[in-house]
Amino acid sequence: MRIKRNSEVKEVEVALKGTKGMRKRVLIGPDNGSKNIIMRYFTLLPGGYSERHRHSHEHLVNIESGKGIVVDKDGNEIEVSEGYSIFVEPDELHQFQNPFEKNFEFICIIPNIDKR
């Protein structure tokens, strides 16, 4: 078993095309002995957003703090906040946005795609 404080995990800026004001921490992953899944913590700063993208794996999202917008495959914008959970299907187009004044923070769990 490995136990660590999330606040002690190094936070890095996500510098992908189509992304703004997004930070990431890998809370649990291969470096911690997890061979099959990766748990990440994202912070979207006010005015920030992820790229509008899709990928071949499903992922789980739990909103930890603040509120934000999830854009679904049809372009619908759904407001979510602390206490919401989201399941994104494989190959589903999606995006996370923060048009609000406070940070939007969420946990995202994905399979270790490098293991496939």
Give the strand tally.
9
Instruction: Please state the average pLDDT score.
Output: 94
Q: Give the H and E element order.
A: EEEEEEEEE
Number of helices: 0
Note the quaternary state here: single chain
The fraction of residues in strands falls at over 45%
Low-pLDDT residue spans: none
Structural commentary:
The protein is mostly beta strands. It has one domain: Jelly Rolls (Sandwich). The chain is 0% helix and 48% strand. It contains no helices and nine strands. The strands form two sheets. Strands 1-2-3-9-4-7 form a six-stranded antiparallel beta sheet, with no helix packed on it. Strands 6-5-8 form a three-stranded antiparallel beta sheet, with no helix packed on it. A hairpin with a 6-residue loop joins β1 (12-13) and β2. It starts with 11 loop residues before the first strand and ends in a 5-residue tail after the last strand.
Q: Layout of helices and strands, plus pairs?
A:
Layout: E1 12-13, E2 20-28, E3 37-49, E4 59-65, E5 67-71, E6 77-81, E7 85-88, E8 95-97, E9 104-111
Antiparallel strand pairs: 1-2, 2-3, 3-9, 4-7, 4-9, 5-6, 5-8
